[in-house]
Automatic annotation (TrEMBL):
Gene3D superfamilies: 1.10.287.130, 6.10.340.10, Histidine kinase-like ATPase, C-terminal domain. Its EC number is 2.7.13.3. Residues 240-456 form the Histidine kinase domain. PROSITE patterns: HAMP, HIS_KIN. The keyword NAD does not apply. This is histidine kinase. PANTHER family: PHOSPHATE REGULON SENSOR PROTEIN PHOR. It comes from Siminovitchia acidinfaciens. GO terms for molecular function: ATP binding; phosphoprotein phosphatase activity; phosphorelay sensor kinase activity. It catalyses: ATP + protein L-histidine = ADP + protein N-phospho-L-histidine. It is an enzyme of class 2 (transferase). GO terms for biological process: cellular response to phosphate starvation. CDD domains: HAMP, HATPase, HisKA.
Amino acid sequence: MKKISIKIGLLFFCLIFTMEVCLFFLLHQKIAHSRIDEQLSALVTRGNNHRDVLETYYNEETIHHIALMEVKSDTEVVITNEEGKVIISSAKINHQIQSLLNLKTKNLPRNGKVIEDNWKSGPYIATIAPFETGVDKGYVYMFQDTSQLKQLIKQLNRHFLIAGIATAFVTAIIILILSRIITRPLIKMKEATKKLSQGNFSIQLESKSNDELGELVESIQLLANELNHLKTERNEFLASISHELRTPLTYIKGYSEVAKRDHLGLEERLSYLNVITEETTKMTTLVTELMQLAQLDNNTFTIQKEFFSVCESLKKISQRLLPTFKQAGIKLLTVCPENIHIHADPVRFEQIVVNLLENARNYSPEGTSTTIEVAKKDAEIKISIHDQGKGIPSNDVPFIFERFYRVDKSRSRELGGTGLGLSIVKELVDAHHWEIEVSSKTNKGTTFTIIARGEL
Ligand SMILES: Nc1ncnc2c1ncn2[C@@H]1O[C@H](COP(=O)(O)OP(=O)(O)O)[C@@H](O)[C@H]1O
Ligand SMILES: [Mg+2]
């Protein structure tokens, strides 16, 4: 569960820790060197001072005085003549000092130089400064015990160790907190998607950040909402289908039972059988339309566009529907300039128009007229179907494209409607990337307008 935070944390820790170790090492080297350089140059300066005094007042007393001064301090002095014979020394000459005195140095600069700087393994660091008076020539050697320097570096090491441990500790804590903060939304999303995969779509994810992680959280939430919506929609749809199928089946069952009775006259029996035929027709329509919808829902559904004349197509359709309009006592008019062509799937286009015309016919009273009007403006073709029927109450308008939605259920059923017509229209319009608009006034009429844009 928390593996990702451990991974990220360890990775960052290794990186930052390595960086800190390098930096600490460099800093340590720098400080240690500058400390040692300081000591060495102080020793050179001290030797030079003795040399200056010697050159100014060269006598026994001065020599003794210099030796005495060094006895009191933590450095030692050895003064030799040119041949290397010791004139005076503030400390006992042991073999380590002797071996340093034996080092022959040529071309000595007047201001002296360091002859031993190995503080790590040697017992002394040492410098030399030449002196020259009218009487004598020789060298002033300065020695400093390295144990003090070693102590100093040891102390420095200890400080660095403490600082290093403290830094590593603080780094670890900061990284721990940071990696938790970074991975918490990831873990939450993981849990949420697990729930999704188990079919629990009612998840609630919060996203406070507006970075990529925040966007991911939002996308997952959107996905969950969408899935939840689809689930309820599917359940409702299935419930509606079974309800819609049950009604005609109840009729068929009931009327067939009645038609089986012995004492019925032929006419009565026929009327019952007629009802059964009618209900079967309705069921066939319902199943056909459901099949169409299922096909439209399927992603493999494609429309085969052709370039054809809108007017010719519309005229053919109205010719076909004219008898039913006549029967209903409704006039059907087509207003269409000849030269308008459209890129569309002709079969689907017909399906759209027929559905809308059938609605206009079904929901209009006798003596009214229905008009199909086509207009082209720039890159836009508008096809409107206007009727003078009973209209759709404004409360219902937002829902009429939903499956099985009918304003007047019993009236629609009586007319053979299934409540699927407009949802099929909507799917077909969407498949063409067109738009459909409705405007309606109760008892005045309804206008459906299809707006086709772009590639016409
Ligand atoms: N031209 C119209 N005039 C009045 N009401 C309409 C019109 N077109 C659709 N409707 C309303 O919208 C509902 C849904 O239409 P539709 O999806 O075609 O289903 P139906 O099978 O009932 O015709 C209809 O039941 C009807 O109440
Ligand atoms: Mg209809």
